[in-house]
Write a structure and sequence with these properties.
The termini are far apart. This protein has 14 helices and 24 strands. The strands form five sheets. Strands 1, 2, 7, 8, 9, 10, 18 and 19 form an eight-stranded mixed sheet that branches. The chain has a seven-stranded mixed sheet with strand order 5-4-13-14-15-12-16, covered by helices on one side. The protein has a four-stranded mixed sheet with strand order 22-21-23-24, with helices on one face. It is globular, with a radius of gyration of 24 Å. Helix 8 packs antiparallel against helix 9. By secondary structure, the protein is an alpha+beta fold.
Length: about 525
């Protein structure tokens, strides 16, 4: 490499899986130059996570990918029910679950429906989208070492096909390199949590044409109670691809015979594709950031796979970190803004992991008698976790009034009313139901004002001002919404949003004015 200039990228993402690719897409959405390196030759060959909830689909919506993802997921459209039976042949669907709010009222939670799509189907879609968006994506490329300096990270890369070594300089590095994360280990970041949870498990991925067996009883997950092979059957494509999840104490067994017993049909074409033992764990990194390196996804948190909590939490990590890196790289924010990534996402990761760890795997209990102390399902599915520290400006009037200040977002019921630190509630803004309050922010900031709120002074920034007549925004109030759809400030004086905006971005209190929108 003598005489050659070392290639550069604003951000280096290590890990080309679900979270790494989503990080790249978010960064490109904000105009940041990004390089992704992945030591594997391809995206995941395993189905892995399959359920991507409303909040994740809202993020894909902002990126312009929701329709593409729903199209790729068409094989599992309508497979959102649960089922239980002694065998698959005998299984019956459980009653559908209807989202509800306070008092049992049916609520419309999001502009996007949740999506069932296997990770080995989704990741190639995201990889191509990242390339189309202008990201540099290099598979068969391994990070073998890195050094942090005052203004950059220098990465040593290995081409695993040709054996060539190269260097790349980046302003920041995002470690999306999995649960064992060599980067996290190199930084000396420990993990805390419950550790191993429950008994060892095994996933048996197999192919068999069971389309006629399940016709009219299509499901997402089916609990099988056969005494010789109890477990759960996950539908990967609704017809040919399936994952059986069972007890991992006896891995070496006649799996075709065990599966046929659990299925209750001969399944002559049954073909085992893989048998993977695993252990559910709850472990959260003690720090999400170290200098110019930030952890995301499984590198930051591992948790039991209840409703793909780990994957959905990782997507939210990427969305949170991406806009902050972009703001700092563009000089719109001080580097101290990045401290809020750990302050916000580490408690969020702990919350998701704790909730996932406490959930029952018995579908009968889950559907009929949910544990009342657990978070409401929509709190998990619609991003209902409330940030209490980070890039937020609390209302000084409430801060001085203990009764008003003690207004946390509830978790055992779903009742979003626009509290600071929460995702802005969804409301349709047009009769055609094509534009949501969720759409008002991202990739820029938004100021939502009530009908009687005085208009702020126009300025030179990209912050859009929207007059909204919605039930969670009284006419005299305003909300400042971040690019990740989180409410950062709420108050009655819209001009105070100017100061809040400046304080959040640069901490210097400089005058940063707001721009109106048409």
């Amino acid at each position: 490499m003598s005489g050659q200039r070392t290639p550069t990228s604003e951000v280096l993402v290590v890990g080309g899986g679900l979270v790494g690719l989503t990080t790249a897409l978010v960064l490109r959405h904000h105009g940041v130059a990004v390089t992704v390196v992945e030591k594997r030759s391809t995206t995941s060959p395993q189905p892995k996570a399959r359920r991507f909830h409303m909040r994740s689909m809202e993020i894909f919506r902002e990126l312009g990918l929701a329709e593409l993802v729903h199209h790729a997921a068409r094989d599992l459209a309508g497979h959102d029910r649960m089922a239980v039976g002694r065998t698959l042949a005998e299984a019956e669907q459980l009653p559908p679950w209807q989202p509800s709010g306070p008092g049992g009222a049916v609520v419309e939670v999001s502009p996007e429906a949740p999506c069932l799509i296997a990770q080995d189907v989704l990741e190639p879609v995201l990889r191509q989208a990242a390339v189309d968006a202008g990201a540099t994506v290099r598979f068969d490329t391994e990070l073998v070492a890195f050094e942090q300096h005052d203004d950059e990270v220098v990465a040593d890369l290995l081409d695993r096909v040709g054996g060539d070594r190269s260097r790349l300089r980046a302003r920041y590095l995002v470690a999306a390199d999995g649960a064992r994360s060599p980067i996290r280990q190199a930084l000396g970041i420990g993990r805390s949590g419950r550790g191993a949870i429950g008994e060892p498990s095994v996933n048996v991925y197999f192919h068999a044409d069971l389309g006629e067996v399940v016709r009219g009883r299509e499901f997402n997950l089916c609990q099988l109670e056969h005494p010789d092979a109890p477990g759960a059957l996950a539908s990967v494509d609704g017809r040919h691809r399936w994952v059986f999840m069972g007890n991992g104490k006896a891995i070496d067994r006649d799996w075709p015979a065990a599966l046929r017993a659990a299925l209750g049909v001969p399944a002559p074409d049954l073909e085992i594709r893989s048998v993977l033992p695993w252990q559910a764990e709850m472990l959260i990194a003690d720090r999400y950031s170290s200098g110019r390196v930030h952890l995301a996804g499984d590198a930051a948190h591992v948790m039991p796979p209840f409703a793909a909590s780990g994957a959905n939490t990782g997507i939210a990590d990427a969305h949170n970190l991406g806009w902050k890196l972009a703001a700092v790289l563009r000089g719109h924010a001080a580097p101290a803004l990045l401290d809020s990534y750990d302050a916000e996402r580490r408690p969020a990761g702990w919350f998701a992991a704790d909730q996932s760890s406490r959930r029952t795997l018995n579908l009968r209990d889950l559907m009929s008698a949910p544990e009342p102390t657990l978070a409401h399902t929509l709190v998990l599915a619609a991003g209902g976790f409330q940030y209490t520290e980070g890039a937020l400006c609390n209302d000084p009037e409430k801060a001085n009034d203990p009764e008003k200040a003690n207004d946390p977002e509830p978790i055992t019921e779903f009742n979003p009313v626009g509290r600071i630190g929460t995702r802005i509630p969804h409301r349709w803004l047009d009769q055609a139901r094509t534009r949501s309050t969720i759409d008002l922010a991202g990739p820029g900031w938004a100021l939502l004002t009530g009908n009687r709120t005085p208009h702020p002074t126009p300025g030179r920034t990209g912050l859009a001002v929207h007059h909204c007549d919605v039930d969670f925004l009284p006419a005299e109030q305003s909300l400042l919404v971040r690019p990740d759809h989180v409410i950062a400030w709420r108050g009655t004086d819209p001009t105070a949003a100017t100061e809040a905006f400046a304080a959040l971005l640069n901490g210097r209190g400089s005058a940063t004015e707001l721009s109106p929108t048409g």
